[in-house]
């Protein structure tokens, strides 16, 4: 080993370093996550700062201008990016293996190339023939999409220089390595070094950089949690492999909102944009069934109508079962306790199963009243009216609290033919009912249950 090299051990989950191997990481408590890395120590050199001045300007002298964006041509993808690609930005796309990340980015880059853009697609996991087979299946054929099967960063830079692309795709970032770093490929040191140099290169060329990373079973992008701080935008591609629909969420965006969500449908010909998700999610909804309630949920700047289903059965064993899919488990347990205490529904001897149809996940508190409606409907064996939507937040004292943007929720429900909406009394102030829509305000859980049936 060279005298200018030293050995250290780095945690591949959080990046914690140690001079000796540790079985458990003191930073993130992960087991067997330390790997050996050789670190080259660069010689110290004197840096002359003569003639260099720091440019500092007053805040009043800085003028804000609209960010120029390039459209990919995929509306749902552009929506989540904040309106399109920003030249010089770096976008990290995470998702479980096999969820469709490569298909998503290849389709988006195909439409971008069809509009006149140039794309360099670098793959480190698949061969050129495999990429060609996927492109043929997706119906993408363009000379403006250049594909390279390479994992060496220096050779990737040569391909960038020869093609001068407007968008660069790295699939995936864990496969890259640079010859200037002694660490093994896929290690945290290689990951940080290659990503930093790629981001700097993309900014110097005003090209949009897309880095694809896998998500571990803990739900983090494999290896580089610190990579999320280096990029401008972080997108997560989510969904159940057994369901047709996929959700693209933004968890960080320096050039747009993080509240946007893109919805896609997985078909034999690739991913298809779902432009009207409410109609799709309610297409197979059973009418007149107990335990079914519809809630207008906010997904970014648009409203999506989602069905909440519940099943309440007598317990056959000593401890009642609670199985929840698509909603936070603790929230449903709190709402069940509120039903017992404030609405006199005895649920301690019943199994409770709650599911959000379509594979979507509800995170906002406006879904509380819909869960209350769904559980009470199945418990009392009384179905809700098929043309009724419900939304509102429920507190521990049984009060129904107002939620944001009620007008958009009501308008979306009226557009799909719903004629009745049960909502918090606090949202009725200044809210005008659409034509053929009846608004009913409630202030407590007991009052809401009386309106449900």
Give an overview of the whole structure.
With 453 residues, the chain is of the alpha/beta class. It folds into three domains: 5-40; 69-275, Rossmann fold, CATH 3.40.50; 279-452, Ribosomal Protein S5, domain 2 (2-Layer Sandwich). The protein has eleven helices and 21 strands. The protein has helices at 75-81, 101-114, 128-138, 153-163, 188-205, 227-230, 277-281, 329-342, 368-380, 406-415, 445-452, and strands spanning 5-11, 17-18, 34-40, 90-95, 119-123, 145-149, 167-171, 208-214, 233-238, 245-253, 261-267, 270-273, 292-299, 302-314, 322-325, 350-356, 388-390, 393-394, 400-401, 420-424, 438-442. The strands form five sheets. A nine-stranded mixed beta sheet has the order 6-5-7-8-4-9-10-11-12, with helices on both faces. Strands 13-14-16-15 form a four-stranded mixed beta sheet. Strands 2-1-3 form a three-stranded antiparallel beta sheet, with no helix packed on it. Strand 15 (322-325), helix 8 and strand 16 form a beta-alpha-beta unit. Helix 8 crosses helix 9 (368-380). 40% of the residues are buried. The mean pLDDT is 87.
């Amino acid at each position: 080993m060279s005298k200018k090299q030293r050995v250290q051990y780095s945690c591949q989950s959080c990046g914690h370093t140690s001079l000796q191997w540790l079985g458990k990481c003191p930073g993130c408590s992960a087991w067997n996550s330390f790997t050996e890395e050789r670190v080259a120590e660069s010689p110290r050199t004197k840096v002359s700062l003569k003639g260099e001045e720091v440019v500092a300007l007053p805040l009043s002298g800085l003028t804000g201008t609209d960010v120029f964006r390039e459209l990919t041509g995929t509306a749902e993808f552009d929506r989540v990016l904040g309106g399109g690609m920003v030249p010089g930005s770096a976008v990290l796309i995470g998702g479980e293996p096999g969820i469709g990340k490569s298909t998503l980015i290849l389709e988006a880059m195909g439409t971008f190339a069809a509009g006149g853009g140039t794309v360099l697609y670098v793959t480190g996991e698949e061969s050129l023939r495999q990429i060609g087979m996927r492109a043929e299946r997706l119906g993408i054929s363009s000379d403006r999409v250049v594909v390279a099967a390479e994992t060496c960063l220096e050779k990737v830079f040569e391909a960038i220089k020869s093609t001068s692309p407007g968008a660069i795709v790295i699939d995936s970032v864990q496969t890259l390595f640079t010859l200037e770093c002694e660490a093994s490929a896929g290690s945290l040191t290689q990951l940080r070094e290659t990503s930093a140099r790629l981001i700097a290169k993309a900014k110097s060329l005003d090209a949009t950089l897309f880095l694809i990373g896998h998500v571990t079973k803990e739900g983090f992008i494999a290896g580089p949690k610190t990579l999320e701080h280096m990029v401008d935008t972080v997108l997560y591609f989510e969904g159940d492999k057994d369901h047709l629909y996929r959700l693209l969420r933004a968890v960080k965006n320096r050039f747009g909102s993080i509240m946007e969500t893109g919805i896609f449908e997985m078909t034999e010909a690739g991913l298809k944009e779902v432009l009207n998700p409410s109609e799709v999610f309610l297409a197979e909804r059973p009418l007149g069934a107990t335990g079914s309630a519809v809630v207008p949920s906010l997904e970014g700047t648009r409203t999506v109508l989602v069905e909440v289903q519940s099943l309440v059965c007598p317990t056959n064993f000593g401890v009642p079962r609670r199985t929840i899919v698509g909603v936070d488990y603790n929230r449903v347990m709190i709402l069940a306790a509120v039903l017992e205490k404030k609405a006199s529904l005895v649920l301690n001897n019943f199994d409770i199963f709650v599911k959000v149809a379509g594979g979507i996940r509800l995170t906002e508190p406006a879904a509380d009243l819909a869960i209350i409606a769904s559980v009470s409907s199945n418990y009392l064996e009384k179905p809700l009216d098929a043309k009724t939507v419900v939304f509102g937040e429920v507190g521990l004292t049984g009060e129904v609290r107002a939620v944001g943007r009620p007008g958009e929720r009501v308008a979306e429900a009226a557009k799909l033919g719903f004629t009745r909406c049960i909502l918090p009394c606090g949202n009725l102030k200044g809210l005008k009912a659409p034509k053929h829509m009846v608004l009913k305000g409630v202030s407590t859980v007991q009052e809401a249950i009386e309106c449900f049936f």
